[in-house]
Specification:
Rossmann fold, five-stranded parallel β-sheet, 9 helices, globular, alpha/beta, 5 strands, 184 residues
Length: 184
């Protein structure tokens, strides 16, 4: 069986991590996150894992080492991964797609969800240090950051678009259909 690589793109709290968890738990796959690279660096230099720090660090790396610096790292992680299904969580830019698209059997999945639903999720989850006390207005304003603006356009390049306004089982069914369609 050929390795299936699912690049997952979507705005904040659209369900990218939920898809990765499902594939790991139910399909025996693995996942790699773009944010893990940034998280590792922030931890190493003892900086807060705020959304702003993630965005600043990403910008510094891309400006100094190329737009595809993170995609190159993920590319090698995925190529060395021995799982049959590999999720790349957090595809954000065209440079990511261009580089990862060179891997055979790469498919881009765009996850969409209503903004209010995504806001409720992000506050409840509290993954970043500044998420727990975030207002809806702050959440909307964050969608105008450079790191977020490019994500919306990726929908136009996706092989699949899934909706995550409902319950987990609805999302899982859509993902399982994509896997079924691509696994021979």
């Amino acid at each position: 069986m050929a390795k299936l690589i699912l690049g997952i793109a979507g705005e904040m709290s659209s369900g990218k991590g939920t898809i990765a968890q499902h594939i790991i738990a139910e399909r025996g796959g693995s996942a790699h996150r773009f944010s893990t690279i940034l998280r590792d660096i922030l931890d190493r230099v003892y900086l807060d894992q705020s959304r702003e720090n993630f965005q600043v660090l990403s910008l510094i790396l891309r400006k100094n080492f190329g737009e595809d610096v993170l995609a190159k790292s993920i590319y090698h992680d995925v190529k060395n991964d021995e799982h049959d299904i590999v999720v790349v969580d957090g595809v954000r830019r065209m440079a990511d797609i261009a580089y990862l698209g060179e891997i055979p059997h790469f498919k881009l999945v765009y996850v969409e969800a209503d903004m209010q639903i995504r806001y409720d999720r992000i506050v409840k989850r509290g993954e970043k240090t500044d998420d727990l006390n975030k207002t809806f207005e702050e959440f909307k304003a964050e969608h105008e950051a450079d790191a977020e603006l490019q994500i919306r356009d990726l929908k136009n390049y996706a092989n699949y678009v899934v909706n995550n306004d409902g319950v987990y089982t609805d999302l899982y069914k859509q993902i399982d259909e994509i896997i079924k369609e691509n696994i021979q």
